[in-house]
Amino acid sequence: MNENLAVLIPELSLVGAAVTGLLAGSWLPRRRQWLIAVLAAAACTTGLVATAVTMATDREQTVFSHTFAVDTATDAGRLIVLGALLLVIGMSVEAVHGHRSETEYWVLLLLTGAGTLVLIGANDLLTLFAAYLLASIPAYALAAFAKDAQGTEAALKYYLMGALLGTTMLAGTALLYAAGHATLYRDLRTALPAAPYGLVAVGLVAVLAGLLFKAGAVPAHFWVPDVTEGAPTPVAAYLTTLPKIGALIAGYRLLHQALSDSGVNWPLLLAVLAAVTMTLGNLAAFFQTSVTRLLAYSAVSQVGYLLMALAVATRTELAQKSLLFYLAAYAATNLGAFAVVTELPQARRLEDYRGLARRHPGLAAVLLICLLGLVGTPPTGVFLGKLEIFSATIDGGYMWLAALAVANTVASLFYYLRWLAPLFDTTAPAPAPTPLGNWTAITAYSAATVSLALGIAGGAVLPFATGRLLP
């Protein structure tokens, strides 16, 4: 049995930093608790370096009785999650500085990030569920970090839906175990084709319910707008970005490795869910006036496009690289938009951004890049990601889904332009919002730069997302 802990350095660095930070924060004075933020950033950097070394040595392997896989999808997911986590840390520095629970904020962020990393490499149903819990429970506390009425209500909705669908996911795990007499994906792949069809189908739907909740997809999306509006903006940025990465890569691995020969027509189920999710998200975003709720429904619609890759997971070799690249581009672009919202805490509605291009041209440029990027406008990374995922969908035999996705992309331009148009309106500018601080602004500029870089240099990045999943 391979028990090589060295390949788990990214996960262990986050958990180790969380434990160390919790202990150190108990003794640090409040004015020095920013040191835990430095520790969190150092843990993310350590994980990025360890992942780069793993990719350079090309040592794909499974560890601990094959329950965790370290392969192309795991390495790419680690890079995306850890890079995105650094951006979230950057936009959180000024927002939580001096808060009486500053240490706890960083510790919770590290723990939920570690759970997301475990989701990415989970190669066993029990490991998958344990990762779901680790990624979810700290996130519930983060959603209520502001401790106001709106945040508490949002966190309660988030927790109740997470508990319900987590229990559903556990029941699905039990059903799949009953059908295949195993929890390892490699064993389920050989056992499930001979198992009762109904048992496998119900078990799969139940497990997918938990993953769809983490991703914010229909029909488990109801928490997204309330939590995005009620939670602190950096937390909202985290919750609309990083859980998607873990859930979608975990779902892709589950479908590709355990259920490819099960006989259940899950590709059609995922295609329908993708169509409904992208359409509902776009329609709900059309007439939003709150910037956070607009970004929340935008996040729901983006999951619809990403689910297209899961629908064709076993139908085309393009599915994996399109999913991984789109996730990277979306993470940078979405976090860039949220960083601008964090930097301007008084600007909560679309009209509050009127005349921003004159007062804060740098932030207006970031918002322009990120919002047009979320539409899928060249030369941003999301444009290339959508191009890849649409191509994979067509190659996988779902031409109708690709056509619907194109129509939704065109329609989404309407509500993004409703936000962009006031930026350049100088006839009756809104009162100038006060920027929060330099760290958040730097984060916004960095995210926009990454979004553009992925679009311009996407040809050099895509090969790193190509590779087989380990059984």
Topology:
Layout: H1 9-25, H2 34-57, E1 61-63, E2 68-70, H3 72-96, H4 102-121, H5 125-143, H6 149-180, H7 185-191, H8 197-215, H9 223-230, H10 233-239, H11 242-258, H12 266-285, H13 291-311, H14 318-343, H15 356-359, H16 361-375, H17 381-395, H18 399-420, H19 438-456, H20 458-461
Antiparallel strand pairs: 1-2
Helix pairs in contact: 1-2, 1-4, 2-3, 2-4, 3-4, 3-10, 3-11, 3-14, 3-19, 4-5, 4-11, 5-6, 6-7, 6-8, 6-9, 8-11, 9-10, 9-13, 10-14, 11-13, 11-14, 12-13, 12-18, 13-14, 13-17, 13-18, 14-16, 14-17, 14-19, 16-18, 16-19, 17-18, 17-19
Strand element count: 2
The number of helices is 20
Helix content bin:
over 70%
**Biggest β-sheet strands, sense, barrel:** 2 strands, antiparallel
Structure description:
The chain is mainly alpha-helical and 471 residues long. It has a domain at 265-471. The chain has 20 helices and two strands. A two-stranded antiparallel ribbon has the order 1-2. A hairpin with a 4-residue loop joins β1 and β2. The two termini are 15 Å apart. The mean pLDDT is 93.
Features:
471 residues, mainly alpha, two-stranded antiparallel ribbon, 72% helix, globular
Question: How is this structure best summarized?
Answer:
Helix content is 72%, strand content 1%. With 471 residues, it is mainly α. Helix 3 runs antiparallel to helix 10 (233-239), helix 3 (72-96) runs antiparallel to helix 19 (438-456) and helix 6 packs antiparallel against helix 9 (223-230).
